Amino acid sequence: MPGNYRFSFGPWNIHEGADPFGPPVRESFAFDEKLKVYTQLGFEGVQFHDDDVVPQIDRYSQADALRKARDVKKRLDDLGLVAEFVAPRLWEDPRTADGAYTSNSASDRQYAIDRSLRAVEIAREVGCDRIVLWLAREGTYIREAKDPARAAGQIVEAVNHLLAADKGIRILIEPKPNEPMDLAYLPTMGHAVATAYLTDDPSRVGALMESAHAILAGLDPSDEMAYALRHKKLWSVHLNDQNGLKYDQDKAFGSVDLRRAFNQVRVLERHDYGQRGEWVGLDVKALRTQKREVSTAHLKHSKETFLLLVDKARSLDEATVSRLVAARDYEALDQLVLRHLLGARG
Q1: If we measure between CA atoms, which residue out of 19, 250, 192, 48 comes closest to residue 130?
Q2: Cα distances (Å, whole numbers) of residue 227 to 194, 222, 243, 275, 283
Q3: Which sign, positive or negative, has the C-alpha torsion 175, 177, 182, 185?
Q4: Which stretches of 10-87 are assigned E, i.e. beta strand?
Q5: What secondary structure letter does DSSP report for 86?
């Protein structure tokens, strides 16, 4: 398969099978067992939440947390793995029930900033310079409960704290329109990019695009990626798939809409994604019916689908595409793409 891409996923993608409507159906894998899966499947990068690195992080002093992070770094080094990013988990603690950076409680907002600053230090200990902000509870269930303009400023203020704490850290904002909040304050790539420009150092603030999150907003992931690429702000992707405007399903990449997946790969190919160190990240979960011993196949399959679509993107007859676009013969263009994806000859 063509190269030039590095692949990552998070340990949460080796999943016990719980969904919003049912409990776990598989036994957990220990953390070290999960790390071995990376090498078995040919992945190099590990995505982390802060409490993936240091479980129950709030119970530890920062000195103890950093010692635990150094131990994780050694385990990564021993397996030839690297940390792609660390994301502070700001949506499970009771102090973030009303939001983290945008909570109506000043003390709870401070907790969120302090925990994020701890995550910056943990990221450095595991050898990465990227912090991902999935702002899960930065929104509201009741419109009148918060001032959205003030909330936008609070998010920028929090990002500025992180930028000031470490002059080498980079912040990646991961937009999502809803869930767990009714409506989120940074629902789309446009919101994430605009927020980057409001910060004290826009050159160090970019975005991470998840396929399903764009679909939940009623948008096409490839368009969202292209927008960020034009701004030089697409610093990572989380590829998966989504069957309509339901809860966040995290299906295997390409499993619902293969053409939509093809266009995501094609836009990355056409704009040299991966040539500046960007990762192809997966955020996918095994189907609830999978037995434990085959519950990592979704990762293998998603990577395989991506590489097959890279081959399709590189072998598409671009001269004919250009000719049909110039003639505005979009019916013929449509059929050209369909035939190519279906492997038709002649």
Answers
A1: 48
A2: 11, 9, 23, 18, 21
A3: positive
A4: 45-49, 82-87
A5: E
Domain boundaries, the chain: 7-315, 316-346
Nearest partner of 237 among 257, 258, 217, 214, judged by Cα: 214
pLDDT of residue 37: 98
What residue type is 18 in one-letter code? A
**Which residues on neighbouring strands pair with residue 206, listed in sequence order?**
172
Give the integer Cα–Cα distance in Å for 13 and 29: 11
Contact status, residue 111 vs residue 95, Cβ threshold 8 Å: yes
pLDDT at position 299 is: 98
Which residues of the chain are modeled with pLDDT < 50?
1-2
> C-alpha distances in angstroms, 225 versus 34, 111, 145, 233, 266?
29, 32, 32, 9, 11
7-315: what CATH class?
alpha beta
Residue 1: per-residue pLDDT: 40
- How many CB atoms are closer than 10 A to CB 176? 24
Q: Which residues participate in catalysis according to the annotation?
A: 49, 52
Residues 66/120, Cβ–Cβ less than 8 Å: no
Classified as helix, coil or strand, 7 is strand
pLDDT value, residue 2: 45
The confidence score (pLDDT) of residue 246 equals 87
* Angle at the Cα of 343 from the Cα atoms of 341 and 345, rounded to 5 degrees: 130
Q: Per-residue DSSP letters for 153-187?
A: HHHHHHHHHHHHH-TT-EEEEE--SSSSSSEESS-
How far are the Cα atoms of 28, 34, 280, 297, 307 from residue 303, in angstroms, in the given order? 23, 17, 9, 10, 6
User: What single-letter DSSP state applies at residue 57?
Assistant: G
- pLDDT at residue 279 in the model: 98
The share of the chain scoring above pLDDT 90, in percent, equals: 97
